[in-house]
Q: What sequence folds into this?
């Protein structure tokens, strides 16, 4: 059984925030606190360390006293953030999630980890009953080399990368809220209307 001490959390905050008017999404306020603060509050008890991938506002993220890294190359998408973060991971496993998912389930990592009972499994990710949630994945840190090759070949698809590995999809229909991303100002305003105790 994989334990908390085997897993480093990677929070992906390197997007351009196009649908948020170019703003740094993970630093937008939900109930007076940045979205990333909500993510970290829920993620840190589930992992032994955290690395944030951020291409802008690095000093703001550094205030959370975790490692903050920038992409090794431009325009690589979420996998570019994962690639750079993996160079700072010292555990055999990592769990990654977006920095704009403030309702992350506090048992999500354990729910995925308990399904790793075969040595050939390299990636585990959830299915919420409607969508495969590829950006909320648990993976072996050793796949960093294959990620380098995948990106070097010009490919960017997270789904495509997962398909190149022995991956396991875990149905978790009871925690669909965990995968809610705050992508727009309208979505942020709506989330701020919900009581802070949500989730």
A:
């Amino acid at each position: 059984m994989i334990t908390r001490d085997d897993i480093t959390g990677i929070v992906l905050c390197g997007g351009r925030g196009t649908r948020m008017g170019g703003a740094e999404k993970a630093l937008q306020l939900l109930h007076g606190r940045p979205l990333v603060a909500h993510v970290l509050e829920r993620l840190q008890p589930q992992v032994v360390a955290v690395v944030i991938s951020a291409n802008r506002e690095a000093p703001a993220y550094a205030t959370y006293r975790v490692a903050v890294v920038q992409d090794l190359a431009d325009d690589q998408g979420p996998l570019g953030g994962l690639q750079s973060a993996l160079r700072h991971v010292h555990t055999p496993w990592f769990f990654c999630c977006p920095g704009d998912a403030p309702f992350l389930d506090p048992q999500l990592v354990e729910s995925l980890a308990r399904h790793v009972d075969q040595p050939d499994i390299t990636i585990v990710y959830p299915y919420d009953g409607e969508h495969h949630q590829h950006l909320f994945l648990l993976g072996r840190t050793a796949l960093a080399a294959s990620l380098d090759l995948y990106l070097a070949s010009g490919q960017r698809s997270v789904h495509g990368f997962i398909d190149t590995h022995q991956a396991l999809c875990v149905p978790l229909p009871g925690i669909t809220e965990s995968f809610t991303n705050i992508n727009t100002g309208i979505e942020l305003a709506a989330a701020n209307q919900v009581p802070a105790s949500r989730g």
The two ends are 27 Å apart (CA to CA).
